[in-house]
Write the structure tokens for this entry.
Amino acid sequence: MKIINKILILMPISFQHGGAEKALVDLVSYSDNPSVKWMVVFASHGSLVEKIKGLNVETEVLESGRLLNIFKYLLTIFKLVKIIKKEKADLIIGWTGKAHLYSGPSSMIARCKSAWFQMGLPSTSNLSDVITHMIPTKTIFCCSKFVGNEQKKLWPRRDLQSVYPGYSSKEFDQKLLHPLEEIKNKLGIVATKGKIIGIVGRLQTWKGMHTVIKTMPIVLKKHPETVCLVVGGQHPYEKKYQKFLNQLIADLKLYKNVVMVGRQTNIPDWISVMDVFIHASDREPFGIVIPEAMALGKAIIAGDTGGPKEIIKEKSNGLICPFNDHRKMAELIIFYLDHPDIAQRMGENARTDSKLFTDERFSKKMIKSILAITRE
């Protein structure tokens, strides 16, 4: 008789904003391993709760309140302990470090094994990161080796496993997209005659959109019809950055050549029209949008620190550039535009290498590790 392992996941985010939420959906929607039964416990109500429910996965919502409210914190742990015991959970996973602040103590009280998934970049100067790391756990799943190395700087030593998140292999498949001219027409950029460069991400300073914009006066001297697309919406904690970018475009008189298209949901379409894809972040934990662009065979420029260095093989499937160095970035953009044959070859290499970062590969590795923990 096949053993069914009940795995609880504590998710503090109830709306789908970024990589951590997508990784959770990928994991619980993967159906090729019937020995795992999922239950996701959320800290609040939101659209992500309904999405997980729609996947026929058990869900429960605990209104945890603010972490600084000690009464609500203890009450949440008490409720979580009850759920762990009631469900006879084999393992509880905190989906982010913040979640482990609740799931870790709850697992100890309920005598259940625990783990947590680290998507962000930990720091020895962040009190929350320090405290979270001190709470016992079987393992910490890290979204890249870079994040794992940063986690090692915290005390005490923990078992760490690097598991790369995956892009949607069905969504980012060039064969399934409409013809390029049809997509351009749909996006309203059919009249563009020059090459298109672009960047995708939330509008935050560390994401480096300003660096990409600053390359344009240099690029336009050599390729005057080039257009730059900035795909991404305002971040709630950095609302002034969008205004800064708009002013930068105005100051550099780039109205015709830089287009801020805002937050978009049809990301495969936007990436597909780009001739050069740029990821300009500083110390990016992973950068899932890079494998997405790779899957579409794009010529890529990415940052020289963090997760991107584990994805990009310099001069094979992409080029790397220091953060904030707009002159170097402009040089690399011009190199691609001057050498379309090399750009195409590197894009083809990128498409091949993207298979290392699929959603299926991520889910299989996570489930294999989870089952190993339950058997210990």
